[in-house]
TrEMBL record:
The keyword Electron transport does not apply. Signal peptide: none annotated. It is found in: Membrane. It comes from the Bacteria. One of its GO terms (cellular component) is membrane. It comes from Pediococcus argentinicus. This is Amino acid permease/ SLC12A domain-containing protein.
Length: 486
């Protein structure tokens, strides 16, 4: 397995620099979840409830990233946690985890290019939306087909745009809170308005955990990019260590600013959606400060965010399909790479799936909605896989007589970190639609929780067919590739 991992690491182009990895990690956690969905979180649970939920989810994501960082610096491969699940848990677990994650991002690409068509209507409402979706898909394909560096540079500059937007928003927001811009100083009055700061109790806060979880999905791309990093032992720990503080700065402060300026009872917050930039909380705050062109600017920023999500999704799903083929979990054809190290066959295969899914959104909306629903929980399932794999990796590492000083990067607060992440991920998965569970609405439950039986079917299929077993800790393969050699 170590030789295969070494061969994989040498076949792909190691062109992602430390600045790329850091910005990809940041870009993965800043998107429509922050720019738009944060408004509905405040509306649902109040300012205090939203802040508690996002802080809790931020801590969980930090622990997950440190777990992933420890394994990724020990063995940097494009298969990331799917490969670790195979090596440290059970081949059947790795098989299901890999296909689960590929499916997640392949469908997400289709969702994102559909969203791009809706966003473009803001400027050009008379042009058919499918044209913009096709243009976006072609651009994303070309960026991923050129070089790894092209992908890294694209994500880097898109992330820069998002960072600048958030920083400007925070500055304008603080000035508005104190009445320096926008007239009336709100200070903390909206934190004690009516039922604030906590609205709806624990159930409302739990529902916001779900929103926050979707907002933070994409941070695990750190593990995928490690396989093509020039110096994973340096870039991955740096990116991981910055995740927590970035989440704290960009999410917690942004939600605090929004909550101070806009009361949780505002109907605009309740109606927040990824396709209506006019009621994005960022747009509302900018307008309150007297910036009339806010909607156009925020629409452009949200457009870049969705493009970034689709671009990252194409990259992640392509590398996962490539890795699955390398491990024998997918057709060998998908393991072929170009001279520049691009897994072109896997890229074409993923693009075709994304294209067919997008076409279904036009030709058969019901099929499309089921596909989207089926991918809904796959990101959280991947997080569970990261926590389980790290738990098993560290226990096997110690049991086989290794010393923690051998690790180039060490996860924080083990074993509390992965245990906390595992439990909270399960809570969020179960809490997706408690109303449907309570009222035994089988159709709603089927749509919401479809990803779980799909994962179990893949797991049981491989386990029964190949009669795999949980790998004993003293038999876990801890050999690692020498990434310093070509």
């Amino acid at each position: 397995m170590a030789k295969e991992a070494q061969k994989e690491h040498n076949q792909v182009e190691r062109a992602l620099k430390t600045r790329h990895i850091s910005m990809i990690a940041l870009g993965g956690s800043i998107g429509t979840g922050l720019f738009v969905a944060s408004g509905s979180a405040i509306s649902t649970a109040g300012p205090g409830g939203a802040l508690v939920a996002y802080i809790g989810m931020g801590i969980m994501v930090y622990f997950l990233m440190t777990s992933l960082g420890e394994m990724a610096t020990y063995m940097p491969v494009s298969g990331s946690f799917a490969t670790y699940s195979t090596k440290y848990v059970d081949p059947a677990f790795g098989f299901a985890m890999g296909w689960n994650y590929w499916f997640n991002w392949a469908i997400t690409v289709a969702v994102d290019i559909s969203t791009i068509a809706l966003i473009m209507k803001f400027w050009l409402p008379n042009i058919p939306g499918w044209i913009w979706s096709m243009v976006a898909l072609v651009i994303i394909f070309l960026v991923n087909a050129l070089t790894v560096k092209a992908f890294g540079e694209t994500e880097y500059w898109i992330a820069i745009i998002k960072v600048v937007t958030v920083v400007v928003f925070l500055i304008v927001g603080v000035l508005t809170i104190f009445g320096i811009m926008g007239g009336h100083a709100t200070l903390l009055e909206n934190f004690v308005y009516k039922k604030a700061p906590f609205v709806g109790g624990i159930p409302a806060m739990l529902s916001v955990f779900v929103v926050a979880g979707f907002s933070f999905q994409g941070t695990e791309l750190i593990g995928i990019t490690a396989g093509e990093s020039e110096t994973p032992e340096k870039s991955v720990p740096r990116a991981v260590n910055q995740v927590f503080w970035r989440i704290l700065l960009f999410y917690i402060l942004a939600i605090f600013v929004i909550a101070c300026i806009i009361p949780y009872t505002s109907p605009d917050l309740l109606g927040s959606s990824a396709t209506d930039v006019k009621i994005s909380p960022f747009t509302l705050v900018f307008r309150r400060a007297g910036l009339a062109s806010a909607a156009g600017v925020m629409n452009a920023v949200i457009l870049t965010s969705v493009l970034s999500s689709a671009n990252s999704g194409m990259y992640a799903s392509t590398r996962m399909l490539y890795s699955l083929a390398k491990q024998g979990y997918a057709a060998k054809f998908f393991s072929h790479t170009t001279k520049r190290g691009i897994p072109l066959a896997a890229l074409v295969g993923t693009t075709i799936v994304g294209l067919l899914t997008f076409i279904s959104s036009v030709a058969g909306p019901e099929i499309y909605m089921w596909l989207v629903a089926a991918s809904g929980l796959t990101g959280f399932v991947a997080w569970v896989g990261i926590a389980v794999s790290h738990w098993r990796f560290r226990r096997a590492f110690i049991k086989q007589g290794h010393d923690l000083s051998e690790l180039r990067y060490r996860a924080k607060w083990f074993p509390a970190g992965p245990i906390f992440a595992f439990i909270l991920s399960i809570v969020v998965i179960v809490g997706q639609d408690l109303g449907a569970v309570k009222h035994m609405n089988w159709e709603a439950m089927g749509v919401t929780y479809m990803a779980i039986p799909l994962f179990l079917i893949m797991f049981l299929y491989y386990k029964i067919k190949y009669k795999t077993k949980l790998i004993p800790l003293d038999e876990v393969d801890l050999s690692k590739p020498d990434i310093t050699k070509e």
